[in-house]
Amino acid sequence: xxxxxxxxxxxxxxxxxxxxxxxxxxxxxxxxxxxxxxxxxxxxxxxxxxxxxxxxxxx
Amino acid sequence: xxxxxxxxxxxxxxxxxxxxxxxxxxxxxxxxxxxxxxxxxxxxxxxxxxxxxxxxxxxxxxxxxxxxxxxxxxxxxxxxxxxxxxxxxxxxxxxxxxxxxxxxxxxxxxxxxxxxxxxxxxxxxxxxxxxxxxxxxxxxxxxxxxxxxxxxxxxxxxxxxxxxxxxxxxxxxxxxxxxxxxxxxxxxxxxxxxxxxxxxxxxxxxxxxxxxxxxxxxxxxxxxxxxxxxxxxxxxxxxxxxxxxxxxxxxxxxxxxxxxxxxxxxxxxxxxxxxxxxxxxxxxxxxxxxxxxxxxxxxxxxxxxxxxxxxxxxxxxxxxxxxxxxxxxxxxxxxxxxxxxxxxxxxxxxxxxxxxxxxxxxxxxxxxxxxxxxxxxxxxxxxxxxx
Lengths: 59, 387
What we know:
The structure holds two protein chains of two kinds. Chain A is mostly helical. Helix content of chain A is 73%, strand content 0%. Chain A has helices at residues 2-19, 21-45. In chain A, helix 1 (2-19) crosses helix 2 (21-45). The radius of gyration of chain A is 22 Å and the shape is elongated. By secondary structure, chain B is an alpha/beta fold. The model of chain B has no long low-confidence stretch (mean pLDDT 94). Chain B has one domain (31-384). A five-stranded parallel β-sheet of chain B has the order 3-2-4-6-7, sandwiched between helices. A two-stranded antiparallel sheet of chain B has the order 1-5.
């Protein structure tokens, strides 16, 4: 059942790309750009690894 | 997939990379550089890790009347809690001297060594620096790796490494200590590149650190206070201390130790029953911090900077209660004095004999009302000496 559903989705996807040949390129381009920008924003601005708040029990 | 489709997808991938590169470049262009400042604003008293890691911002906001003061969590005390903090005493009056406070909670002597090496690369006003230290920095085992890595600044490390006044031997000692503290080998090598790969690592790490600092400096720029520009006054230390005592008596009413009411009621009193002799094993001896203090003083010597080491006391009745007795603390203070005494250019402002004085600290380890006034007086006299 699940296999059949996946096949249906795949055929719909292939048919869509067949009718809109540029969309595959657009998807690749935006996915790569979004992934790289997302990674950059996380590393540069997420605050991951930023300094800890002062806590009294450290002393 | 057909060949021409594959080529198109490859081009799309490259275009995606190019778009991302443009977005990253735009971020670099749009964020103000680290040295941007408002001429009429004093940022010296802003408590910030980003400010403390930016030598460009620090230099842009120091003049010849500025004393560079390194420290840690004591700089986080707000004026609402202790009206005598430097931001009030010196930030709101023109005493002819200003302080540039650099450091954040958990910044210890190894961090300070890198900081002074990086900042001194472009000169320090009057070739003077003050460093505030307390026994909390000298606990057994030293600062743990995760805490240290959270405060490690690649920019300061790179600045330290590129300061030609720092001898190779000292540079290597700092690298060895960083490795002990868990800083990864690639980062250590990138600070002083030996090959093209190290250099590439350095460019990437430096670029990311630069962007982080530039984005975080936005908060610092909105937290400055108007520059005190009135006629130069002479501080009346007796009057300031008397006022500090009055403020302390008003803000410390529910305990005999002379600490701030809310801290005692919410932070200390509920925990006291479980704290009796809880730290009896502490010796203040098994730590690399004394050697790190020596590294800091070596860096000052190498850069021709005269340091003033300010010893902040601890709240003696509390430390007696938790099992770290007077003898242990006295031995630790002695060891600090011995390290400082090895460096003829270094001076001490030792307030350890105020451990039992109420109101000197507002909590267990940080200067309070009268404590800050005494420390500021020492800093002011150090800054004005020889002028």
